[in-house]
UniProtKB/TrEMBL annotation:
The protein's role, per its UniProt record: May be involved in the degradation of misfolded endoplasmic reticulum (ER) luminal proteins.
Highest taxon of source: Eukaryota
Stated name of the protein: Derlin
UBA domain boundaries: 316-359
Location(s), subcellular: Endoplasmic reticulum membrane; Membrane
Entry-linked Pfam families: DER1, UBA
Source species of the chain: Anaeramoeba flamelloides
Protein family membership: Belongs to the derlin family.
Gene Ontology terms, MF aspect: serine-type endopeptidase activity
Main location: endoplasmic reticulum
Annotated transmembrane regions: 20-39, 60-83, 95-115, 122-140, 152-171
A GO cellular-component term linked to this record: endoplasmic reticulum membrane
Length: 360
């Protein structure tokens, strides 16, 4: 299979990776704009004088959005483009939380380090922290990939070349400051070992709805509006329904407790009433259990119907099926197993990847 040296995947573009597309496009646009218009980047990079002394806090954000050297731009954008595979495996909602955490952690860490270490004059510009955080996640989450070429008695695959380019970016960043790569590596380790419950976090439903309705169609990444945050919304619905049922159960128990207190004052006179209350509670408990089962079944069935409606007309010879198959093969999976996983999941790339990663 012929493979692009920098992409390592036959499927090109940002299909099913809108967040990666935003980061890639924003970094490229700002860097080229500074170069073409002759804007001095010194006014926007993170520096001790600008952030600490002049209180120009905006530098903490702008300094992570552009590169100042062409080789850094080429290597950095190439890595961001390749790491879009993580978004396709995680899903956009989960990947967006990861990116938000990395940027927040790196910005806060850089600010604190400049406060306590005035010797740090400048911070290397560019989304370097994000790249090194994604490197940790990429190394741990993605399966071993096929060999691309051999040389000097060594076998090189996609992961080894990614590490090679990251080492190059680290060496070039070291000329100014090693803080961005280090904060990125720490953020990636925190995420992977779950030192903080980042993986359980989700954006508010209003944000999900806005992105699904406006942002995704505008980006044109072939992401379904309905399926954009479907897993996150399904989990929220299940938790909300369980909470409602638990509240109903609590209210019934409290109501029955008050009834017991009243019946104990005259057991002989209210024995029949007590039996009726017991029967009433038992019936309500049965109804609650049945209602919970119906609600959960309804949510699961609705999710299955969404997947079925989106893929019922897709055959193994369709362009979308072949693109997803090539995507999985590019990740290093066996072609036959990849095709079987896509058939089992009705051409759902995320579910098929999860099946292959779990070894089922």
């Amino acid at each position: 299979m012929r493979t692009n040296l920098f992409v390592f995947s036959p499927s090109i573009g940002f299909r099913h990776a809108p967040v990666s597309k935003i980061i890639f496009t924003l970094t490229l646009t700002i860097t080229l704009t500074f170069g073409l218009l002759g804007i001095q980047p010194e006014s926007y990079i993170i520096s001790n004088e600008g952030v600490i002394q002049k209180k120009q806090i905006y530098r903490l954000f702008t300094g992570n959005l552009f590169f100042i050297a062409l080789i850094d731009l080429f290597v950095g954008l190439g890595l961001i483009y390749h790491f879009r595979l993580i978004e396709r495996i995680f899903g956009t909602a989960k990947f967006a939380v990861l990116v938000t955490f990395v940027y927040t952690f790196s910005i806060l860490t850089q600010f604190v380090m400049m406060l306590i270490m005035p010797s740090i004059k400048f911070i290397t510009p560019g989304p370097i922290s994000l790249i090194f955080a994604l490197l940790i996640v990429y190394t741990n989450q993605l399966p071993p990939t096929t060999t691309i070429f051999r040389g000097f008695g060594l076998r090189f695959n996609a992961k080894s070349l990614v590490w090679l380019f990251c080492v190059l970016l680290f060496v070039r960043s070291r000329k100014i400051s090693v803080l961005p790569p280090i904060t990125g590596i720490i953020a990636g380790l925190i995420y992977e070992i779950e030192l903080l419950p980042i993986k359980k976090l989700l954006f508010p439903e209003s944000v999900n709805t806005f992105c699904s309705k406006y942002v995704i169609p505008m980006l044109g990444t072939n992401q379904s509006r309905q399926s954009f945050f479907s897993s996150a919304n399904t989990n929220r619905n299940i938790n909300r329904n369980r909470q409602m049922l638990n509240n109903n159960q609590f209210n019934l128990n409290r109501q029955f407790g008050h009834t017991n207190m009243n019946t104990n004052m005259g057991q002989n006179q209210n024995q029949n009433q007590n039996q009726n209350q017991n029967q009433f509670l038992q019936n309500n408990q049965n109804n609650l259990a049945s209602t919970e089962e119906q609600l959960l079944q309804s949510i699961i069935e609705r999710s299955r119907n969404e997947i079925t409606n989106q893929t019922e007309n897709i055959s193994t010879q369709s362009e979308e099926f072949q693109n997803n198959l090539q995507e999985l093969i590019g990740m290093g999976f066996d072609p036959e197993k990849a095709e079987d996983a896509l058939k089992k999941t009705r051409n759902n790339l995320t579910l098929a990847t999860n099946i292959l990663l779990s070894g089922n």
